[in-house]
Design goal:
CATH architecture of the largest domain: 3-Layer(aba) Sandwich
Strand content: 15-25%
Mean pLDDT: 90
Number of helices: 15
Largest sheet: 7 strands, mixed
Structural class: alpha/beta
Distance between the termini: 56 Å
Radius of gyration: 27 Å
Shape: globular
CATH topology of the largest domain: Aspartate Aminotransferase, domain 2
Length: about 475
Amino acid sequence: METIIKKDSNEAPISKSEDLKLQKKMRPIPYLPHTDEDRKEMLHFMGKKSIEELLTTVPKALRDFELNVPAGKSELEIKQEFYKLASKNIPLHKQISFCGGGVYNRFIPSVVGEILSKGDFYTAYTPYQPEVSQGTLQAIYEFQTLISNLTGMDAANASVYDGSTAVVEAALMACRLTKRKKILISKCINPEAIAICKTYSWGANLELELIDFKDGTTDIELLKKKTGDNVACFIISNPNFAGCLEPVSEIAQIVHKCGGLLVANIDLISLALLKSPRELGVDIAVGDGQALGNPLNYGGPYVGFISCLKEFVRQMPGRIVGLTKDVKGKRAFTLTLQTREQHIRRANATSNICTNQSLNALAVLVYLTYMGPYGLKKIAEISLNRAHYLASEFQKISGKSGKKCNLSYNKPFFNEFVLEIPIPASEFIIKMTDQYILPGLDLNGIDGYKTNQVLVSVTEMNSIEQINIFVECVKKLFS
């Protein structure tokens, strides 16, 4: 029997087949505004007879690839399709997450979103006419100040895109300062940062060499052999990608001995407990401010920062906001340094970065102001203590046939550690996910790690109850 669809209470019902015919007649609005005539005119201007002739420079194997793009749909149909896809996601608050590796699930006070949503900030754009953007400039200035306070450095820039681009910008900065062309980078930093450094160094005709790690931290003896008078900098993370704390002071001495600079990718929250980069001999401190007031948000946007010693400021990319006085003697904020290609001659630009992440940087500022030194230290202590508690509980697990969970590296760590398990990490993650637990990052495929290693992260969002649930699930799995 054919389905009957009612159009209106005052109208006769229509059949399902008639409804389908009506839908076919409703042509969706095209996304491309060019008509066939427009395309013919453009091809004629370029001296081409067809689209195929225009694309002859593209390899035939790629041109013959069948995309199987479905027919166009209306806006309503597309929205319904997206709602279906979105409904497959399980919200983070319905799971227990121990994922980290550079992006962390941390508590965001309500005040952060409240202030960010104010129109004055939310609609603020890059201050091309800076002196009339005093509110934006003040926010950036205060952000720079807090970054400098945490890192112990003399200056910080107005922010860059994210932590990985901050790493590579610092490396390029070191090459300009030392007038050298070789970059050394520890394998034990975020693989995304390594990948971006490879891309940039190739484009800038710089030499890049990876330094292996041993028992979770940089291989010091190998580093000594690789340093020389052609090395511009050495890049490390502290804590590093494996969660371990590097011997930063020792590394700084080795790098400085050859005339190079030490670049450190750091976790700002860890600095509430650890010595500042400056105290450890770091020349340029970089990182990502995501964990301070910015949500996970499917990978972005985030906010990178760069801070350095005073003598290196003129080679810092992006911009720096400074404090001065106006003609009436009142406090005023201004763009003290603008080294991007839109402001100075292209050849003299330090970077092609076109903007800073002002809104994300503001989130960091609000977060740090609200938390204060005591709050930040408390969060760091909770993260450290609970991470060590989880690690100790894992090491107590002993299942059948001697199945055990071990820490891969016997080194001090902050809130992350690498767990070695008796089954492949991918299998372990699937089994834990079935229990609504995200157990960590699968390290399989990342250079230097094994197929049965998982990077586990603990923050203040992981209660003792959640940690115990995780441990019990692992015990059951290996019993």
